[in-house]
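Action item from last meeting closed. Structure (120 res):
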């Protein structure tokens, strides 16, 4: 194995391993609210376009790295879309008259007092 292939292999492993904590946390918690859906869409579109270039190259470490990026970014996009659908779906069924409005602090406080028996 020559030096460029060895360097490419090592960097591929390091890049992939550095993304695993983020991916693991997103899969475990399903909390992707900090991710922008438009950013996820752009990243995935760029990955698809870049695939034409990467897969035209001879087989090597870059194929593994790019495939990892394709799969992990695709997973993140799916999680983001599901989270947005769940947020809009549950918001439209809330007590806000179908407007997706969250209850205010006063309403939450009143609910807590009713639940605790202070207001009956």
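Sequence:
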């Amino acid at each position: 194995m020559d030096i460029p292939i060895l360097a490419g292999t090592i960097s591929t492993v390091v890049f992939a391993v550095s993304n695993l904590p983020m991916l693991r946390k997103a899969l475990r918690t399903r909390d992707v609210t900090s991710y922008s859906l438009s950013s996820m869409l752009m990243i995935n579109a760029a990955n698809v376009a870049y695939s034409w270039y990467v897969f035209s190259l001879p087989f090597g470490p870059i194929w593994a790295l790019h495939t990892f990026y394709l799969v992990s970014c695709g997973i993140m996009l799916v999680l983001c879309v599901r989270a947005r659908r769940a947020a809009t779906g549950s918001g439209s069924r809330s007590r806000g008259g179908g407007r997706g409005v969250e209850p205010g602090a006063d309403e939450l406080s009143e609910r807590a007092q009713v639940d605790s028996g202070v207001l009956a």
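Note appended to the action item: Residues 73 and 83 are 15 Å apart (CA to CA).
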